[in-house]
Here is the input.
Amino acid sequence: MDAPKFRTEAKVHEPKTLVFGKHGTGKTMFALSTGKPTVVFNLDNGLEEILRQNKKSDVQVADFFPVASGSGDEKEAQATRKANAETWERFLDTLRWLYSGKHDRTVFVIDSIDAAENLACDYVCYNKGKASISEFDYGKGYGLVRDQMTTLLRACNSLNEDKGMEPILLAHAAVRKNEEPHLTAYDSWQIKLNKNVAPLFMEWADAALFLAFKSIVVPEQGDFGKKKTKAHFDGNRIFLTSPQTGIEAKNRFNFPSQIPASYDEYRKLISDFRNGKSGD
Here is the structure.
């Protein structure tokens, strides 16, 4: 056996970004603010007004909307699963084309990965002849969905590592119970994916950032002369960047616990970290 080859230097790659938060916090707006040639995989069908307000942005859109079944009729439900399974295949095929085809895009956005998971669920159910994930033996259905979402992440990695593209993945947030071996169980905001799928994306991301409005605590006069405090939103958006009670976030760039939700500021902090200026 030949001696294995080892690296002594870090690979250079664009950051792998996952942005999640409650609806209406500006996730898509952030993703379209890079100022770079961008392609958006539009699965949520919620970016039209943002596009109208950003006519000068160099953004191309590929639509892959999940179809919702309109009634409880099984024939219609089967047609819905078939349509969504075909949409999932087209979605993956378009990612493959982005890898092998000729284009000028440098950023790709998936909006959103929870909508992508819905497509993957219908793909699995349709191809296995099931009406829903619940018809599979315990854990098997979402195991197959996990396989499909792993294929999605492999495509993202190939575009990032081989083609130098910058991935920005968006997700909605949901409150889930968090259980730690050394703590009492508590609720936290996490990405809105099945528990078998969510860790794949959290582990994949260089930065998993929770997007929220900045709040200011203001003292107020309560009843009977008692003082109380009340939180007010000041309209500015921030990223929560690291694990804390109530929020599941992370980053590999030694960010402060909160940073402005600005793409330029985000990239500057990454550049500073990589150049040894973090914390200056």
Observations:
- DSSP finds seven helices and ten strands in the chain.
- The mean pLDDT is 90.
- The two ends are 47 Å apart (CA to CA).
